[in-house]
């Protein structure tokens, strides 16, 4: 039995949330997790439908994308996940879905503005969207460059990956992350909901604006940081 | 065994309607109930996912927000609930959700106009929306001030809390109430449906108007008051 | 045991399709059926939630709205059903729902144009919408006048109730009918779907037009009349 | 026992995906499959609700639309399926649904533009839409002419049926195909999702454009052709 079975189980469970939460149809989407000490990443195999996925199908790789354990080909998006783990040192899970409303914002190449407290409970910024990828980057090493675009966006926009745990890749769809695989998927669930709420809000009132900074901070910091009083403190 | 077990059970059951009726994702939303004679309020603990919630987790407080029974931290929205119980003396339950269409109207800072009989069966007014909260109120005592904004809206708009059992808090979402916790959640289910119907109506006919007063009264009073003939009279 | 148990069972089953097909929330909606020889109508009792409804709760009335059997109060919409049975002699069931998209068109006071073959498979006309009711009619005998408005619409528009088995009551919602209670509910399911399709179509192409008469007739008459070749001929 | 039981079972299973995936209500939709060596097509019988459909109800026909086996009338859309099998020699299954968003685009008589990678993962072109059928064609042999319109569209638009496995028939709805009945239904599931995503995208950003050719090719060819690296290579 693999010494990484616990990690495979975590990643398996997180992947199975994708169909349960209607975050993607058929085989779309993938979740990974990392054992930071061992430098081992576990990820969904490529193109496997969720109802056929088994714990033992989860593929293990190192941070250079070399397979460590498993007989299946890893997700075609693996290099994007790996790059995020390398540059976002405190994250433990990454999730990529094709959830409908988040994809629509990504295809519209529009950041999702922070229009209410459901959004502000989870992040202070808009949900940012990358630039459209250049032809050179597409041809070079597409999935690696997808990761580079996310890193460039966070660097250029002075975004903190620990406070903004989600991004839209232009013309493609969302990536989310968090302290573990379960939190990464949780963020995809939240993102889809705020993407839908923002869509509807702007169709009721096209001039709806980002809410005031005081309200954003109040909601974000009642859930995050040392003065948080939401939840059970665990 | 607690002498308030019956109240905890009522409040537990009402909270479990939130995921069943798709009124909120993950841990969002909370329902409370009150024993008026004892002055005891029962409410969902903060940040607990519904599939893990147990009857014994429901927290008991007095009207000054002091915990009377329970090991968990109460909902972060507790002070809003308490204030409503203090000022709306005939209500027995309060419900707060982040249901998608109701939140969209709240984020759009638009009252939901009374566009048809589904709405008029439940309230004669529009579903009112509060003002955006001032920075001073946000910083002072946020959840208490949320309650104050609802009270001010009802006082200023000459709204009767027994006839209009729902409100939208601007940039946030809905609160509903009723004679008991079950009725409070029922009103959240109805609100989400009329919020969706109003959204669609105005996208079919942008000049749709509030229906005539005679039709509003006919529908409201066939369900409410001494001449009601809807239902089984119980 | 009632000699009309078969009718109560048919009507019970048809009513239970309303929540199964998501045609209405909580207690909204009602289906009736008629035994033409006996002149007996069976209908849902008023205000009973579907998960509590039992076969024996179905109320029996005559065509003058007098209760023949049953301890519960019949649907508050009973007089609308009765009037339709009186004037549409070949129908055996009537269904009223508050399904979301059909209600939105009714609240928008817009007929649903015949935009495609899903619609034309079921009716050749638009789904018609009544006038807004006058204050005099509302005050006189509301549910009876709702029926009168439907009859006036069909008479004035030269609509054939056997070819157009559905209508939108302005500011209220849909009524549908058919040869038996099951067909009446089936028509409500179809109506909700074509109401949604028409909504979306006009939001993709605001100048979408009623399809050509030849295509309407082709689809309608491959399913209806002596030359029909859809289905198994039963 | 029929020597084509394996084919009937495949076609039965593929048809049952239609209600499971919410691709059509009531009896709408139909899937067929072909045994190329025997020249035998299996298809859903006309007008049968899915919950009553049985393996033995699947009808067998030859390529001239003559029934080879089965007591029921085949789908009224049979001649469209047959014509596609005749002219698209490598396909093994055809699926027709009335899925909501795909129908809306068909009723709007608008091709679905390729707005993102979910679309590009499956086809490089837009989802094409036929011309509105002439009155002469409607009256001649409607279902055959529906097939002819698809063939004309592919010939005129220089579309490759192996790369574009889906089409919208104007004012009607989608047809999809693939190497077997299961793949044909899979394509209907994907089509409904990209139809919804495109609808939402254009309502967030009305000037959203077809994505760049390099991105289309990257996504399409990582899943298709000799250099594909998505999936498990089977």
TrEMBL record, chains A, B, C, D:
SMART domains for the chain: Aldolase_II
Residue ranges occupied by any Class II aldolase/adducin N-terminal domain in the UniProt entry: 9-199
InterPro entries, per the entry: Aldolase_class_II_sugar_metab, Aldolase_II/adducin_N, Aldolase_II/adducin_N_sf
Membrane-spanning intervals of the chain: none
Keywords annotated in UniProt: Carbohydrate metabolism, Isomerase, Metal-binding, Zinc
Domain of life: Bacteria
GO molecular function terms listed in the Swiss-Prot or TrEMBL record: aldehyde-lyase activity; L-ribulose-phosphate 4-epimerase activity; metal ion binding
One term under GO cellular component: cytosol
Cofactor(s) the protein requires to work: Zn(2+)
SUPFAM superfamilies the UniProt entry points to: AraD/HMP-PK domain-like
Enzyme Commission number(s): 5.1.3.4
UniProt name for this protein: L-ribulose-5-phosphate 4-epimerase
Organism from which the protein derives: Dyadobacter psychrophilus
